[in-house]
Write a structure and sequence with these properties.
single chain; mainly alpha; 2 strands
Length: about 230
């Protein structure tokens, strides 16, 4: 019997069907890339990630049928400011870019959440969207922390070198640990606005798990029971 022809890998088709999965993969890959930089040229990596992740976030918004023009109105200036911050070496431009990215990620996360809540079946796309929305929220708050630190130096402290500003990876670590409810004692909000942002993220994390994850679990159980009853 002749061998059956192997079907070629169709990554472009998979990405087209599940853009939130591609966005999730890029964000997780960036987590692995930051430690490899070892503090060198971190701003270059920061802006390079912006140029890749921001258009993907807009693509996710488009697939969720939200206002795509609004996402681009945030994305284009964010990318231009990120490039200008490196070219000119101006931290203020990096903070402005971070502010726009924070708004974009919050908007994209909201669009994905609405997309998931409108559907009455659980598919692979919904599961990818649930994971991507979580990371979008984490990145959105991390960028908000970055802006807060730029506006009010000393907003965040840490166990290691407590006097210096917190690095991006430290603020992202704080965001993930806060949103997931695990907590940490390595990076701490010190000033009032920083503590308010952390409390808002704690509230968002609890609400996300209650509203989205529990609904996806319930729909999955209903689907399994429906299959078993046939």
């Amino acid at each position: 019997m002749p061998d059956r022809p192997r079907s070629p890998l169709r990554w472009p088709a998979i990405a087209a069907r599940h853009p939130s999965a591609l966005l999730l993969a890029v964000q997780l890959a960036s987590l692995l890339a930051y430690p490899l930089m070892d503090g060198r040229d971190s701003r270059v990596l920061f802006s390079a990630f912006t140029l890749v992740a921001v258009p993907l976030a807009v693509w996710v918004v488009f697939r969720s049928h939200a206002a795509n023009w609004f996402a681009w109105a945030l994305a284009v200036p964010a990318m231009l400011l990120a490039v200008a911050a490196i070219a000119l070496g101006l931290p203020a431009l990096a903070a402005a870019s971070a502010a726009l990215e924070s708004l974009l990620y919050f908007y994209a996360a909201g669009a994905l959440i609405v997309y998931m809540l409108e559907d009455h079946t659980v598919t692979a796309d919904e599961l990818f969207a649930a994971a991507a929305a979580f990371t979008l929220l984490a990145w959105g708050f991390a960028y908000a922390f970055l802006v807060c630190q730029a506006i009010a130096p000393g907003s965040f402290g840490g166990v290691v070198e407590p006097e210096r500003p917190r690095r991006w990876i430290e603020l992202l670590f704080l965001s993930f640990s806060t949103l997931s409810g695990t907590g940490n004692g390595d990076v701490m909000p010190l000033l009032p606005y920083a503590r308010v942002l952390v409390m808002l993220e704690q509230f968002a994390g609890v609400g996300y798990i209650a509203a989205v994850v529990s609904r996806l679990i319930a729909l999955s159980i209903v689907r399994q029971r429906g299959k078993a009853g046939r």
